[in-house]
Amino acid sequence: MNKQELIVTSPSFKDEEWIPRKHSARAEDVSPQLNLQGISPKGKTIAITMDDTSHPLFPNYNHWVIWNIPVQEIIPEALPHAKVLDDLGGAIQGMAYGKNRYKGPKPPFKTIHQYVFTVYVLDCSCDLGSNSKKTDLVKEMEGHIIQTARLSGKFQSYRKEG
User: Fold this and answer.
1) Neighbouring residues of 148: CB distance < 8 A, sequence distance ≥ 6
2) Burial of residue 58 (number of CB atoms within 10 Å: 0-12, 13-18, 19+)
């Protein structure tokens, strides 16, 4: 059986490139638009996590966790700060660094940190409350992940863009 590949991209930045300041906690702190290609027809919902993979004290420090997004090819930019996103089919944002919202990069000083957005296509909805964390979501998704894809970007707090 040939498994279809899920691809995640963003109009804001290319994989392994610089995340624009707009998407950081040093500026507007808005989530980037994510575009998905190759979603399996068996998918029911989408979950997304965003982690700082280079945090020196807390490896894979979670900045954002959201689940129960209806299957769609575009996750819009600047999702609202809320536990439940009615305009996104009742998707739930859990507890992460952003506390029920996206919280963008904000590494200290001039350090460069790497951030990874992981998109999961699931064959179900997750029965978790908004106080749930990434660890709860990972456990809930066990046996239900149809596809995964990653988009990675780097950020430096006082880097000049341009």
Assistant:
1) 6, 118, 119, 120, 121
2) exposed
Q: Which string of b and e fits 1-16 if b means at least 16 CB within 10 Å? A: eeeeebebebebbeee
Structure tokens at 50: 């965003």
Which of 15, 18, 28, 48 is closest to 104 using CA atoms? 28
How far apart CA 20 and CA 106 sit, in angstroms, is: 12
Report pTM: 0.96
Q: How many helices (H) and strands (E) does the chain have?
A: 1, 10
Which tokens hold the place of 89? 């089919």
Spatial distance between the Cα atoms of 102 and 97, rounded to a whole number of angstroms: 8
Confidence of residue 77 (pLDDT cuts 50, 70, 90): very high
Q: What residue type is 115 in one-letter code?
A: Y
Nearest to 48 by CA among 91, 82, 16: 91
